[in-house]
């Protein structure tokens, strides 16, 4: 084991054996006043949640299933930036610890060789256009073997163990994620979104690729992903040269 090199992130950690979803547990703690950087970890989730109402497969002992309490001071419209920041943090931690070159698919799926190794779910509690707190949910497939995946996921998912061809120490990975989160949150507080956007673009597998985007409003957009705008929206340029911001939803590469 190694020391956790942070001031606030992970200084309080609740470790659960089995839970429905660490998102719910972290939300309850945040409601009770838990400070920024409070973490909930579980060995297994019985109903892990993914983005867009999907389920998140969270088998016992094989992954990092973690939720972090964030207390942003920015107004409501800035939460997409926190989603991107969290993706950068997890991507950097994975690269640092395993040497495997994970890339980010907008907004924050982490892919290795085209398969998803990690997903991020950022949920916010708001009141009068104000953010009361956010919960950054991070799922990382760490030590799953190929035959641990249910059939519908075998083509889509991969694990760090499969890609790095060795067991990965979950405790070290968690420490690395928390260190990256704290550093990036500090950078963000001091210098704003611009440096985060640059890091995100450098790790992204989406930029300069042709994408089909479905916005949250169900509108289909086709074109080339050209970058992030200052709010954290993905900018897609159509064949007609029109630039469209994609704020939510999913893309196909
Ligand atoms: C996605 O890619 O759709 C996001 C997946 C987020 C999964 C994590 S695992 C820890 C936390 N608890 C949950 O129920 N979901 C998030």
TrEMBL record:
GO terms for molecular function: ATP binding; biotin--[biotin carboxyl-carrier protein] ligase activity; DNA binding; transferase activity. GO terms for biological process: protein lipoylation; regulation of DNA-templated transcription. GO terms for cellular component: cytoplasm. Its EC number is 6.3.4.15. The keyword rRNA-binding does not apply. It catalyses: biotin + L-lysyl-[protein] + ATP = N(6)-biotinyl-L-lysyl-[protein] + AMP + diphosphate + H(+). Residues 1-189 form the BPL/LPL catalytic domain. The keyword Repressor applies. Keywords: ATP-binding, Biotin, DNA-binding, Ligase, Nucleotide-binding, Repressor, Transcription, Transcription regulation. It comes from the Bacteria. Biotin binds at residues 45, 49-51, 116. Belongs to the biotin--protein ligase family. Acts both as a biotin--[acetyl-CoA-carboxylase] ligase and a repressor. This is Bifunctional ligase/repressor BirA.
């Amino acid at each position: 084991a190694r020391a956790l090199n942070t001031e606030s992130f992970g200084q309080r950690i609740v470790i659960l054996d089995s839970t429905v979803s660490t998102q719910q547990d972290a939300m309850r703690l945040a409601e009770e006043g838990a400070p920024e950087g409070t973490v909930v970890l579980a060995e297994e989730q019985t109903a892990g949640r993914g983005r867009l109402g999907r389920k998140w497969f969270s088998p016992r002992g094989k992954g990092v299933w973690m939720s972090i309490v964030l207390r942003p001071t920015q107004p409501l419209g800035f939460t997409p930036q926190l989603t991107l920041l969290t993706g950068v943090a997890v991507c950097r931690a994975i690269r640092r610890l395993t040497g495997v070159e994970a890339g980010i698919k907008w907004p924050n799926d982490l892919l290795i060789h085209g398969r998803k190794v990690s997903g991020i779910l950022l949920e916010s509690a708001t009141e009068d256009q104000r953010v009361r707190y956010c919960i950054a949910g991070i799922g990382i497939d760490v030590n799953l073997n190929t035959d641990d995946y249910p059939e519908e996921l075998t083509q889509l998912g991969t694990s760090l163990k499969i890609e790095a061809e060795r067991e990965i120490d979950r405790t070290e990975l968690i420490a690395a994620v928390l260190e990256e989160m704290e550093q990036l949150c500090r950078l963000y507080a001091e210098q704003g979104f611009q440096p985060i956007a640059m890091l995100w673009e450098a790790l992204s597998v989406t930029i300069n690729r042709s994408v089909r985007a479905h916005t949250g409003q169900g509108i289909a957009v086709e074109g080339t992903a050209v970058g992030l705008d200052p709010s954290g929206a993905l900018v897609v340029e159509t064949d007609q040269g029109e630039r469209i911001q994609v704020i939510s939803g999913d893309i196909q590469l």
